[in-house]
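Hi R.,

Here are the chain sequences for the assembly we discussed:
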Amino acid sequence: MSASDHAALSSQLSTPHVGGANVREVHDSFHGDLLEVSMGPHHPSTHGVFRMIVTLDGETIVKLKPVFGYLHRNHEKLGETVTYLGSMPYTDRLDYLSSMTNNWAYALAVEKLAGQAVPERAEYVRVILAELTRLLNHTCLAGFLMQDCGCSGTPLMYAFREREYILDLFESLSGSRMMCNYQRFGGCRVDPSADWLTGAQKLADRYGTFLDEFETLLTGNEIIIARTQGVGKLSPELAISAGVTGPMLRATGVNYDLRKVDAYGVYPRFDFRVPLGDHGDVYDRYMIRVLEMRESIKILQQALAGLPAGPIMDPKAKLRSFRPKAGEAYGRIEGPKGEIGFYLLSDGSPNPYRYRIRPPSFINLTVLEDMCLGHTVADAVIILGSVDIVLGEVDR
Amino acid sequence: MTLPGPLTFLLQLPLSSAAGAADAFLERLPLVARDWVTSWLPEPWRWLVNSLLSIAIILSVFGLLFAYVTLAERKILGRIQNRPGPNRTPIPFTKLRFFGLAQPFADGVKSLTKEDVVPRGADHLLHFLAPVVLLAFSILTFAVIPYGRHLVPVELNAGVLYFFAAGAATELAVFMAGWASRNKYSLLAAMRALAQLISYELPLLLAWVPVVLVAGTLSTTEIVAAQAGWQFNVIPHWYVFTPWGAAGFAIFMIAALAESNRSPFDLPEAESELVAGHLTEYSGFKYALFFMAEYFGMIALSGMAITLFLGGWHAPSPYLEFIPSYVWFMGKLSALLLGFIWIRATFPRLRMDQLTRFAWKFLVPLALINLGNAAFWSLSFHWSGPFQILRWLISVLVVVGPFVLLGRKLSAGVAPRVYRYAV
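And here is the predicted structure of the full complex:
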């Protein structure tokens, strides 16, 4: 590192508060040269092909530059070259842990664009699948986060065991475990059978027990508390101005859940609460997700109990040779990672003129450096883990 | 009491007297076997062959133990994590799998035949020396552990001191590996390893000083001999059953976890942070040597913990003395190793500053207080009757009080939280 670089960094260091994090001043002879380490794209805990160029003073991070785009595949341009229906399977590949909610958000945008109504049964099924997706995503995230904390795989394997049960449900419903391609404009592709609903009911009844077991192992663990509390603090002001959404935003104490704010679908009919954190650190982000899972189970129970009979697809819905009128629409839902939104601009042709995604994990990732400054490499790993990114969605 | 003919030998088994146990055939079996081998040689050669035999037995027994501890670790981790663990490796040229019992040998063949990659900018000599030095020092530590009543490879007056001197040198090799690899992750790992060494060497050493104080000797055999006997034929006179011994044992095992780089103190090779730490640039057999040294260190430290606190090879009850002493040693060793594996499966990793803080602000003061506690214990050995109860009370208080106070101070400011819900 050249002397000028060093001087520039040193001047950065002397700023006591960079982005909310408290950075130690470094000017004594004990703290010598800075070390630049490239973490990723092939690193065990960057959750895919993500790269962080971190500048270290000892082990303290003084600068962090995220590098991504290794998984870029022209998703938005692709959306303009295929029909509206043709984009539906592509949305599965965005956040490949929660394809059901991606499908829903996209279907919602197209339904808004075309003024398409959705039958009540389909709305209920969508809620059931979205909440199952939330359970799946949060469970996996908790497992990954604990893996990043240094657990030798035990929480991760427990989490993946439960994930398998949910994936089995998805597979028997849609034919695919992860790439479900299930939602359609005006309803859902297939009607869930009575067997399937019984399976979902069993899972919903059982999941609380698993969460209890999981929490017994992890939540009260002194090492986890010491590792995560006070680490990676995010202020509500910064979170709002950066556009952070989802559990990360609610962990800072901001009451913003699209299921309550937009009241889309049939969510207003269900009784559930929105947990809020007070510190905005990694522990809060973990706990908010655990508490959200418990609320999701409540929603699942209510939705399964109140599931009405009727068609799963609007009979007037048109899938092939579908040409919405010229206009624009933005559909957004509360995905497991935050607000997932699709913006569509139609010129009356079979393809959208412009297809734009608001990816929650990409936007949540923008505050990574602010959260990591002043912490150590070990903390950066768990802070990244607590952001909950999926590179398919970040890079698109 | 009449027994069927073939079982009459049971009556002849010495059950109570220590002298009888010492003469039991199984107990003397290793000695008999050794003497049988050396009796074929001329007298001047016997001492040399005796030593070589000890070395060969240590290498083969602990080499095999290492192989099967790795397998056991993978199997037990697997069971804890709802998966079967390695179970596919057949016995060569057969289709017999036996739960994957051949897995360690398959691993050995794999690491022997793998390409040995050395980074271009690396210090070749140090890069080669690091695993060799590490393994050499780990094996040296096996010399002074009494494995059974008649099984001590080397009788040293200062055996305990020798053990920890050789054990402390192993961290130097970790630093060599980290520095020689010319890799930033390795360098960070080397830095962490040194900090960890300096921090945890102190509680490790301070934890066994009370034992030396009470036993009055640095020789491992005499420390084991000092723990002979039973209270009311039920409670063994092991040091772990005294307040200061229990505290010392706990501190010793925590520090041993850190010294052998095991979870939750596996910071030098933290795979989620530093890829593989100091092992990042090692492949093939050099990697296997590191792996072997780590397990040897773990086994040796467990063996020393048994020697110092768990009564060495002594049976827990006089009625169980018919089982040979080396079997007891191996049983205790397996139990401790199971503990190591269990802890690895359960706990997340600490952060560097928390690791050092835990050592300096918690373990070291506790170990120092415990040293005073042991001094009090040995000064009050003649207290009897109600004073005996008083002695226990004081000793327990001296351990528990600082533990609670220091622990409260250490975890100040962090606690489980209560969450609110939006209305």
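The longest helix of chain A spans residues 120-149. The CA atoms of residues 332 and 341 of chain A lie 4 Å apart.

Let me know if anything looks off.

Best,
T.
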